[in-house]
Give the backbone structure.
Amino acid sequence: MKARATASPNIALVKYWGKRDSQLKLPLNDSISVTLAGDFQSRTTVEFSEDYAQDSLLLDGVEASEKEMQNSFLVLDYLRKLAAVDFRASVVSQNTFPKGVGIASSSSGYAALAAAASAALGLKPDARQLSIAARLGSGSASRSIIGGFAHWKAGSMDDGSDSFAVQIADENHWPELRIVTAITSAEPKIIGSTEGMKRTVETSALFRQRLSTIPAKVEGIRQAILGKNMHSLLPAVMAESNSLHAVMLDSWPPIIYLNDTSKRIIAAVHELNDASGEIIAGYTFDAGPNAHILTEQKYLHEVEKAIKGEGVKSLHVSRPGEGSRIL
Amino acid sequence: MKARATASPNIALVKYWGKRDSQLKLPLNDSISVTLAGDFQSRTTVEFSEDYAQDSLLLDGVEASEKEMQNSFLVLDYLRKLAAVDFRASVVSQNTFPKGVGIASSSSGYAALAAAASAALGLKPDARQLSIAARLGSGSASRSIIGGFAHWKAGSMDDGSDSFAVQIADENHWPELRIVTAITSAEPKIIGSTEGMKRTVETSALFRQRLSTIPAKVEGIRQAILGKNMHSLLPAVMAESNSLHAVMLDSWPPIIYLNDTSKRIIAAVHELNDASGEIIAGYTFDAGPNAHILTEQKYLHEVEKAIKGEGVKSLHVSRPGEGSRIL
């Protein structure tokens, strides 16, 4: 009853910000993401045994925090129920990320956990079940189950059974696409996502209006991905990121993740597109100041040149990658 | 037919951002401001004469731009019609502001122009007419006619005859109030207010929602001013500033005025209030990165200590001041 799995982080193109159920991680809106290939992975081994008195979780060699234990327990328990098994588990997870790379490990971590635990339990879950299991650990992990481009449907059921990610297109659909991550700060987050989302939902007068704009954005971005259409995808992705950071700023007290280097990159991307006379780059920012810039391979050099400079600590280039899988 | 007048800039507590008529400077929402005393003044001399072939305008010794000429012409012409006079005017205006002080001179400038031109024409306009005349030069100037605390009512008439500022309370109402201006950048604006407003109105999906929140804010802030209630005034003023900058960020392309020093000041003010266990300071930012911090005299030292530091180029302290007047 032991298995090992890997999963990669994903970058949201339509953002997940706001929960309708904090325990089940049910979101207030659909989101869309691209799963990253290669360098960034969470590799997780899960073993169930009647010898274990309780679940244990080691992350990069360190015992997990209480919060991580609680979230992992939700994933493990969902799968134990599916398998009708009551053994405790030993979980050992390793991230291949360089530290301070500005990419959160929660999406890949809980996706790898869900995949490894399923296999260890002898389950053959479909992507829907795996996505739901991963979602219970961290909302964004529901999307890292899926390779290429994922659409996490918010769903409407109270039990979350219709809240899972589906594939828009796989990792081979758009091989020229690149995601350039520009690290602009190695400092810890000013506020975590869970607390930040709660604050925005409870205090921003603009947040409900933002929610009402999401369905059209989701459909537009889905179509742009299917058509590999940079001209419609990238402006929509940038505007969506700006909308997210606008409602963060409108929260009380305000949440401001973007720093002067983020601002400089935003301006540089707009200038680059203006100077090119076409849309060759588009930024998106999660709950942090680090930029993820979408472009295509042929523009990579130009984009890197435009955004490099003061305040950019490092650049990492990724392409669309596979979903979670058993090793 | 010659007169001289002075007026001071005002700091908006509920912001003016978005026009329903760009020629007449009719706003989409009510706004509230405090007029500053003393150091910052525009002093303007206007002379009408049949000898002048055209209006001329000298600002701090430099010939005015075409845009400034157009706006001044609207003010002068409104008053010429009231006086049934058709002479051209020579206008000479001087600002007492230190350069790069981060306070726009348009509010004081057009208010002083309206006051001086009225007097030169022998008019005895009431505050309503003066406010309308000043508004035609620059929307915010409608408030600098008024001493102390001004409420610019958006009005609903197409001709702007009901769009003017009225006094909430005069400059002696709250003598302990201080406005600390922290200069965080001497660089020119990334985008002017006229262009920025237009962009927000035309592109921000959140802007209409912001507008719907204004009436309640206006009433709350008006009551807080009347009651000299720091605890209700300052959080409302801060949230209003954040709401403005949120819709700016939500514009396309995004407008981002706040810089890392603005962010640091925002955090410092929240920390100061938290540490004090009461609300002793509140920030507001116009279309720029410079902070205006409201506090009372007894907290001034504490507030200055909290916001001084990296990135703050200078601090200026003001108190509520008089409206425009003839010299």
